[in-house]
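#struct-pred

JT: dropping the chains for the assembly here, can someone run the whole complex?
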Amino acid sequence: MREVHTTVNNIPMADKKPTEIASLGEFGLIDHLTDSFSVRNASTLRGVGDDAAVIAAGADEVTLCTTDLLLEGVDFDLTYFPLKHLGYKAVVVAVSDLLAMNGRPEQLLVSLGVSSKISVEALDDLYAGIRFACEEMEVDLVGGDTKASVTGLAIHVTALGRARKEEVVYRGGAKLHDLICITGNLGAAYMGLQLLEREKRVLRGVKDPEPEFKGNEYLLQRYLKPAARKDIVELLAEEKIVPTSMIDLSDGLASDLLQICKASKCGARIYLDRIPIARQTTAFAEEIHTDPVVAALNGGEDYELLFTVPLALQERVMRMGGVDVIGHITAENTGAYLVTPDGGEIRLKAQGFRDKE
Amino acid sequence: MREVHTTVNNIPMADKKPTEIASLGEFGLIDHLTDSFSVRNASTLRGVGDDAAVIAAGADEVTLCTTDLLLEGVDFDLTYFPLKHLGYKAVVVAVSDLLAMNGRPEQLLVSLGVSSKISVEALDDLYAGIRFACEEMEVDLVGGDTKASVTGLAIHVTALGRARKEEVVYRGGAKLHDLICITGNLGAAYMGLQLLEREKRVLRGVKDPEPEFKGNEYLLQRYLKPAARKDIVELLAEEKIVPTSMIDLSDGLASDLLQICKASKCGARIYLDRIPIARQTTAFAEEIHTDPVVAALNGGEDYELLFTVPLALQERVMRMGGVDVIGHITAENTGAYLVTPDGGEIRLKAQGFRDKE
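RK: done, full complex below.
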């Protein structure tokens, strides 16, 4: 059927072969689609391009807002992702973006597209996970939209948070010689996913399958029930540290550090032997003949925080606990590199396939 | 594969037949899922249950937030919904919820799940519609999330707005003897959809189909490019009218008025011969042997505003222009009825299948 022409001016389709979305890449696509939008409202302090949008709220405070879409078959596989965990993780993914702005998460809106194969009991499980995460992170569920889907399960989360205007941390504030800090450990979530995928392959077609996870519970938990680091944002406030830049690690250390370098117009050196990797991650990586550092750099979904602070704050950062200094910010023209123990330098490349918003 | 037990307590599935979602109905499902959530943050002024969530922002103002999910095959059919119109309408659907709270729309976040069949040029069209709507309604695009979908197109919109705290209009404030007012006319969007469905049926299998829309352009526009009544919210402010209750007409007059009655604990009488219906709606309804009043009551997607004002404001409301008084609020125990010209009373029933958030 031809395009309907009403009183709206339809942009005529160019008479050429359509361009595949993959050709632009995910970040390129967002830039392409949003470049031509201008900002009109004085309350819009920051739009597209950071972990969350920043909107004026009163004289001293701002509202932070972020949205994430989780799609069945893309972001999760219901054959091994328990719905309760999925609900929990959906909240974490969104709340983590607010924490990465140094914000206090406060409200949540959850919209679901639900296929007929999903029962009320299954949704109860999903919401039990959402409720558990809301309680843990002291966030209020304030709205949403639920409708039938003709395809798979779609979960959309909008998270709202609050911060004092001068304490919002953007990606673009890292300065020369700043320390690059990281919370927790990296690569475990990716290994958890590899474990689940392996068991799924091995047990395909088996009736009443009994997957073997013994000894790897930690990896599973890191993938299925990652933590949002609200504790770190609270510790930063206690130590009166406002990082110069911050991002949450959803795409992997390499991709996310490059986002900071791009926004801050700087380079970086991180040291391979400083990257925190859990014992269980290393053990399972060996078992499946993978390099755990690659998992840390490119695996993603760790939802730890990556931030930079001035050199002078090193002692205060170390006092916080649970934070490792893994490198420092360099001049933009020196690029971003991983330094190996023998002094070799490997250029960091973005490998994430997930949108950073 | 069995459920993975990590350190999260999984709620055991009850050992009984799963409950189908349809058995609860859409409103029932939302109540069921959200009943057990409690509110923790002082900034949460209103959560689930109105057109938008209301969040404190400074001393005198509030932030309004609403989300809507539009799914291919459920909310739109790409065989006849031009992408530019779809982008426009996605914004209208969300912005309309803010207007229904008497709010000023200011920011927008758009997330897309995009299947591989959609080209960059198609997304350009979608975003051209979004941009057009943003310009018209003076809203800033401030974020989103774009990812590949293995199924159809999913569009998720979060809209943020602002209002003075004492000027927010909820659904629950209608008082006995208040006038029931309506903007524009009803049922046209539903007739536009019927027209498109008819042409799709007629032209199925035809090469280079040429659908016949002559004379019905108005109906198509009302369905494909509905207006959000920002003008009405501005006129209300000019006339210094703060309605006692308000809702946007997305599910149809019957269902939406019943939402006001439920929230305000009141009844209503509306008069059949006062319901504004456009000439084109009546004409096409006759052509397809349908009752235009049924389309007005149950069709939905008109995105007009339904509001109540004290009797004393009748003159000021009439001075606004573009508003019809169609009835009045009665005591709760008298129910909600449509009064026919011969004095008969027909009980109003909710027919909408769409979520009201």
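JT: nice. Residues 98 and 161 of chain A are 6 Å apart (CA to CA). Residues 1-14, 352-357 of chain A have pLDDT under 50 and may be disordered.
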